[in-house]
Specification:
The complex is a heterodimer of chains A (362) and B (246).
Chain A (H helix, E strand, L loop, with lengths): L1 H18 L4 H27 L7 H6 L12 H44 L12 H46 L5 H27 L7 E4 H14 L3 E4 L7 E4 L1 H19 L1 E8 L3 E7 L21 H5 L8 H11 L3 E6 L5 E8 L4
Parallel strand pairs in A: 2-4
Antiparallel strand pairs in A: 1-3, 4-5, 5-7, 6-7
Helix pairs in contact in A: 2-4, 4-5, 5-6, 6-10, 7-8, 8-10
Chain B lengths: L5 E5 L3 H12 L4 E5 L2 H10 L4 E5 L7 H11 L4 E5 L4 H9 L4 E4 L4 H16 L13 E4 L2 E4 L4 E3 L5 E3 L2 H12 L4 E2 L1 H9 L10 H11 L10 E4 L3 E4 L4 E4 L5
Parallel strand pairs in B: 1-2, 1-3, 3-4, 4-5
Antiparallel strand pairs in B: 6-7, 6-13, 7-8, 8-9, 10-12, 11-12
Helix pairs in contact in B: 6-7, 6-8
Classes of the chains: A alpha+beta (362), B alpha/beta (246).
Chain lengths: 362, 246
């Protein structure tokens, strides 16, 4: 029995949740409108109770207007009353709407600012405005932002120190390798050193990526794709741009975008042997797709590979290098450009990395 | 160039100075070493040094400060080494009087090439061109080259990305505009790091660069073909700015 009551209570609360407006504004407005309507209904009911005419049902009064047939009250009185009530109701509902908006605005702004903070942690602190609760919440937010920025700065210092410590022995190694007589051994030393340096560099790139703002330029994305493909071809890789490209301008950070698409190409070549790049130009977004010839990624791991330092078990075993930051960096850069990066397995085999960039930056 | 150029290596890591010293000796340089700023000044007083290879992170006075002081007191070129590599550090290094900047770990042969370039530049000053190695932003005839981003901004304001080979070719042209380059000279310059396999013909590369410069391939006005000899970069003014700032 108790269970039954509990269940029905749960069901009611679920129903209430579904019926209740989702936003603060909606709830305030609903509350005020209900109060206004209820008070009117109550007042009218009392008034008609006291008057000589039998009271019409309040619903009928609001919806149809006029009392039910059968009674013949003087026409003027209900019409005047009706007008009066309508005007008053309208005024009060308007006031409720404005009031609710006024009260909920600071909270809405706080929400928008918090969202912007998620995109750019270094944005200027929010002004403390609005109601006292809002000012307090804003202050807490600003303090949190300060603390995050401080931690980021500490992390950067730490990373710089570690990278220095790693690079000094690497420099020694590079110099020492020069005294090797066998050119083949020397070359393989050089390759290893280059690879280790690349790992340090990508780690730094990822960690410092957020901190260094770069002014956006009106960048021809087509020329970037072709340049990156040519660089890869010069390094002996199988990379091609499909279709012919005309100038496709987009507001973007040039270095960041080069790194982003470069990482997608690197990833395709590293795990999928080759990269086929295509550019789709739509009215409100640009889509860069990098398609490779590899084994793809198991469906259940597709979401994880965009996380920093995540590497598929198979790629670890194959010892194909990398620290698992290329896609994470690309993903970050895409988000900074209000775009998105998604991976999918192509039906004809291979992995497709799709970079979607909106034309209008928010 | 002086066949026996004297190089001073300043680094607090003793092994690096020793290894680098013996490596450079193989390329016919005379090398000296110092572990910090004080030792550097002693060595500079003792030997007729032609170029200083200077690490940024040193105990006591750091490399940036030392580079500034060298520039003020002596006319000796400086190549800076740093274990931190990002555009900001590079700009700071170049602003503080360094002639070039290399990040650790570097390809030893790359350092030798840079030393040669800097020495050639300081012993035979070539007027007219932008000091390309020291400039991050180069303006020429309404165009702007951002070296760090390897991006070319047209007079209309559209940024065009350059490939590494195109970038090196344009940098070579900008270093000495209105000079005739033979194809072989350009191939040598555009090859860059030994890691790249340079397969394209220089003519194809030039035509690609012309396209990005909106230079008419049939009647080029910027990159002129000199029949049987090579190419010439025909621009009126080239101005470099050492640093890029917002």
């Amino acid at each position: 029995m108790a269970q039954l009551i509990d269940k029905s209570r749960q069901r009611i609360s679920k129903l209430a949740q579904r019926l209740l407006p989702d936003s603060l504004f909606g709830r305030l407005a609903l509350l005020l409108v209900v109060a206004v309507v209820a008070s009117h209904v109550l007042a009218l009911t009392l008034m008609f109770e006291l008057s000589p005419f039998p009271p019409p049902p309040p619903n009928g009064l609001l919806v149809h207007g006029g009392p039910p047939p059968g009674h013949e009250p003087p026409a003027l009185l209900p019409l005047g009353l009706l007008m009066d009530i309508t005007v008053r109701l309208a005024a009060l509902v308007l006031a409720a709407w404005v009031g609710a908006r006024w009260l909920s605005e600071p909270v809405r702004q706080l929400g928008a600012a918090a969202k912007a903070l998620g995109r750019d942690i270094h944005r200027p602190a929010m002004p403390e405005a609005g109601t006292r609760e809002c000012r307090e919440a804003t202050r807490v937010f600003n303090q949190m932002q300060d603390r995050i920025c401080l931690q980021l700065a500490q992390r950067d210092q730490f990373v710089a120190a570690v990278s220095h410590d790693l690079r000094t022995p690497l420099t020694r190694l590079a110099l020492r390798a020069q005294s090797l007589d066998d050119p083949q051994t020397r070359q393989s030393f050089g390759r290893d050193i280059f690879e280790m340096d690349e790992m340090i560099r990508t780690t730094l790139d990822y960690l410092l990526g957020m901190a260094k703002p770069e002014p956006p330029l009106l960048l021809d994305l087509g020329s970037l794709l072709i340049s990156l493909a040519e660089d890869a071809q010069d390094a002996g890789q199988d990379v091609q741009v499909l279709g012919s490209l005309v100038a496709v301008p987009l507001m973007a950070q040039a270095s960041a975008m080069r790194r982003c698409i470069g990482n997608l190409i690197d990833n395709a070549v590293r795990y999928g042997k080759c990269a086929r790049i295509s550019l789709t130009d739509s009215t409100d977004f640009l889509l860069v797709a990098v398609h490779d010839d590899g084994p793809g990624i198991p469906e259940h791991e597709i979401a994880k590979v965009l996380a920093p330092f995540y590497r598929l078990e198979s790629s670890r075993n194959r010892n194909s290098g990398g620290v698992g930051l290329g896609l994470a960096t690309a993903h970050d850069i895409a988000q900074r450009h209000a775009g998105s990066l998604t991976l999918s397995n192509h039906s004809a085999g291979g992995l497709v990395a799709s970079l979607r960039l909106p034309r209008q930056r928010q | 160039m002086n066949p026996q150029a004297q190089i001073l290596i300043v680094d607090d890591d003793e092994e690096i100075t020793t290894l680098l010293g013996s490596y450079l000796t193989r390329f016919n340089f005379v090398t000296h070493t110092a572990a910090d700023g004080d030792a550097m000044w002693v060595q500079l007083g003792r030997h007729p040094v032609d170029l200083v290879v200077l690490d940024v992170m040193l105990p006591g006075t750091d490399g940036l400060q030392l580079s500034r002081e060298i520039r003020q007191r002596l006319a000796i070129p400086v190549i800076m080494l740093s274990a931190r590599c990002n555009s900001y550090d590079r700009v700071i290094g170049l602003e503080n009087g360094a002639d070039d900047y290399l990040s650790k770990p570097f390809e030893p042969r790359e350092l030798v090439a840079r030393i040669h370039t800097v020495l050639r530049r300081t012993t035979q000053p070539q007027g007219g061109g932008a000091d390309v190695l020291r400039s991050d932003v180069i303006h020429f005839d309404g165009w702007v080259l951002h070296r760090e981003e390897r991006t070319l901004v047209s007079p209309a304001g559209l940024a065009v990305a350059l490939s590494n080979a195109e970038f090196r070719l344009l940098s070579t042209f900008l270093q000495t505009p209105r000079r005739l380059f033979s194809r072989d000279q350009l191939v040598e310059q555009a090859r860059g790091r030994s890691m790249d396999v340079f397969e394209r013909s220089i003519d194809l590369l030039v035509s690609r660069l012309r396209q990005k410069l909106a230079d008419d391939t049939n009647a080029p006005s910027m990159i002129k073909t000199v029949r049987g000899a090579g190419y010439m970069f025909n621009v009126q003014s080239v101005q470099g700015r050492p640093a890029w700032r917002n």
